[in-house]
Task: inverse folding
């Protein structure tokens, strides 16, 4: 009945499904374990009528015209330009640290002096890693880097990843930039915005095709079997393509041990007032147990003067409990070595493709995984064995 089976209806699964169904003329079955589509981008109205991102805020941004044009087929956009501030002991400063931030941290005279130094040495509209600034011979420039490191990045990273200061690799943290610009936007990508009617609506449009069948609340492992290099669906060998976008360790019953992730607890609150913080997002970099607060009305341009909904994010270790969602792969040599064992096992199945954050154990922005998914689908339509190519 089906040419391809896709496990997961998030960014990767929905994109591949539409491409194979529309351009490849394939009959596609999408199996989704959750009771909704859109993966972690899923949004819905809360009990107060506020559109919230159920799994935390997701902001679309890209320089890839192909990806932008493709998604624009399924949604109109609200022109949202994302700006973030850090709460540093009660003072709100723009992130990434930029020339506007200098004016808030230093005296007017000192800020002007530092601005001139940074522009003369690095040029306008450049992003300079703080590790490079830390190694500067100029004490003032060096001081900026250490301020950014200690006030904006260090404690935030400790909370996000559950690490002690001595466990944080300075070569990694050193990639955090100082942006020599007056541009307060978090991203400078050409295309930015939020789906006008929400992410869920965009995914509904993407999956609305006569060749696509979606089954929600369906655990693929209950109707499929992966055994001796062959894949079975409902007891019969399936020789079409299987694109798996879930946890690869879970697919193989944690044979080599569970892959470590960080997860999040979300604390949603509604307030009977027009605004809670006056902006979409505030990072708490030096105090509080949570890492950030999102106020959704500023993401989605909702007009509601009566109430507003926020969410606080509390990072913690992923234990594998069914109530938890794995969000961030913990990338280190040991974990990559463990993942590679699962990847090698997956390669025993010639018609199996691992795709997405969980299946590939790596971080993807929305645009990157949509772009990758379009490439994978194109390859599959060309009868290339992407289960071999993409999993090397």
Result:
């Amino acid at each position: 009945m089906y040419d391809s089976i896709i496990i997961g209806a998030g960014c990767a699964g929905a994109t591949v499904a539409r491409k194979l169904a529309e351009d490849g003329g394939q009959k596609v079955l999408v199996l989704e374990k959750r009771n909704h589509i859109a993966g972690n981008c899923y949004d819905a109205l809360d009990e107060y009528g506020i559109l919230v991102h159920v799994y935390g805020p997701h902001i679309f941004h890209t320089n890839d015209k192909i990806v932008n044009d493709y998604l624009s087929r399924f949604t109109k956009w609200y022109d949202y330009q994302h700006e973030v501030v850090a709460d540093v002991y009660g003072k709100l400063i723009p992130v990434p640290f930029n020339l506007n931030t200098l004016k808030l941290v230093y005296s007017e005279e000192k800020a002007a002096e530092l601005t001139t130094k940074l522009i003369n040495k690095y040029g306008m509209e450049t992003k300079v890693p703080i590790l490079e600034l830390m190694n500067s011979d100029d004490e003032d420039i060096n001081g900026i880097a250490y301020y950014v490191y200690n006030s904006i990045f260090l404690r935030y990273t400790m909370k996000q990843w559950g690490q002690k200061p001595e466990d944080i690799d300075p070569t990694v943290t050193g990639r955090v930039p100082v942006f020599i610009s007056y541009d307060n936007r978090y991203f400078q990508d050409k295309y930015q915005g939020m789906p006008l009617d929400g992410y869920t609506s965009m995914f509904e449009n993407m999956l609305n095709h006569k060749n696509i069948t979606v089954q929600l609340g369906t655990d693929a492992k209950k109707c499929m079997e992966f055994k001796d290099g062959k894949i079975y669906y409902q007891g019969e060998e399936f020789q079409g393509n299987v694109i798996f976008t879930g946890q690869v360790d879970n697919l193989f019953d944690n044979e080599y041990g569970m892959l470590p992730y960080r997860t999040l607890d979300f604390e949603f609150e509604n307030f009977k007032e027009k605004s809670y913080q006056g902006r979409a997002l505030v990072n708490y970099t030096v105090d509080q147990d949570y890492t950030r607060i999102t106020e959704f009305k500023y993401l989605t341009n909702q007009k509601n003067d009566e109430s507003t909904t926020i969410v606080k994010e509390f990072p913690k270790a992923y234990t594998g409990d069914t109530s938890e969602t794995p969000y961030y792969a913990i990338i280190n040599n040991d974990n990559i070595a463990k993942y590679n064992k699962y990847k090698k096992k997956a390669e025993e199945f010639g018609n199996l493709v691992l795709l997405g954050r969980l299946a590939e154990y790596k971080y993807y922005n929305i645009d990157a995984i949509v772009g990758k998914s379009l490439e994978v689908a194109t390859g599959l339509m060309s009868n290339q064995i992407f289960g071999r190519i993409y999993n090397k």
Observations:
- The CA atoms of residues 9 and 42 lie 10 Å apart.
- DSSP finds 15 helices and 23 strands in the chain.
- Residues 384-392 have pLDDT under 50 and may be disordered.
- Residues 84-180 form one domain.
